[in-house]
């Protein structure tokens, strides 16, 4: 007879570090400009003598730290309720370009960055979650700082690169990717309404987490990532609660 799972799991979690990789969302926070702000209404309030407190939240699915399933950009793509819970616990790989972003906010990763990661840590495991650490989450929740728009109206924010995403998805067979900034594509691309990198990721039947936090508090290799979200039927995106264990 096999032993209960918790008896095996508990010793593995003892003295581990749990790091929350999620921003708390709220009205007025940074968000995609075409989306409306959050509206929050207190329906019942203990402080006003009600028997309980309850809020009504009006938000778009892509709000705060959130998950994008394939259906967000791809007609017929998997929706949130179709993403299996088995894919919510993954090996975490952190690709760090934060030092480069300090000097160049338009920085993107290169395949050489990935190869150097692999030279230090071994091959990126199949099924991994790869997070791009840019340091951009330190600007949260300053909307202007997050967008970093110049006088010509061009946003200067870091993002992914096509060659790196192709390497991760087609050669490493990762399950999902994530990043600290608002978009997959760098700001100079999104300023031109170019979302081709996000389209590529989701068209490969992968999912992603946007607006991650605290990636500077986790190691570049060896951690586990747990990503959870609500299960709206045919949902195209929703705020996520994401954390790591290391």
Question: Quick recap of the structure?
Answer:
The protein has seven helices and ten strands. It has helices spanning 5-13, 98-103, 111-121, 143-147, 162-171, 187-190, 196-203, and strands at 18-20, 39-44, 54-58, 66-68, 89-96, 129-133, 176-179, 207-210, 223-229, 238-245.
Strand content: 15-25%
Order of secondary-structure elements: HEEEEEHHEHHEHHEEE
CA distance, first residue to last residue: 30 Å
Largest sheet geometry: 7 strands, mixed, barrel
The global form is globular
SS-derived structural category: alpha/beta
How helical, in percent, are the residues? 10-25%
Number of helices: 7
- The average pLDDT score comes to 97
Rounded to an integer in angstroms, the radius of gyration calculated over CA atoms is 19 Å
Describe the structure.
It contains seven helices and ten strands. It is α/β, with parallel strands linked by helices and 246 residues long. It starts with a helix and ends with a strand. 35% of the residues are buried.
List descriptors.
246 residues; alpha/beta; two-stranded antiparallel sheet; 10 strands; globular
SSE topology:
Blueprint: H1 5-13, E1 18-20, E2 39-44, E3 54-58, E4 66-68, E5 89-96, H2 98-103, H3 111-121, E6 129-133, H4 143-147, H5 162-171, E7 176-179, H6 187-190, H7 196-203, E8 207-210, E9 223-229, E10 238-245
Parallel strand pairs: 5-6, 6-7, 7-8
Antiparallel strand pairs: 1-10, 2-3, 4-8, 4-10, 5-9, 9-10
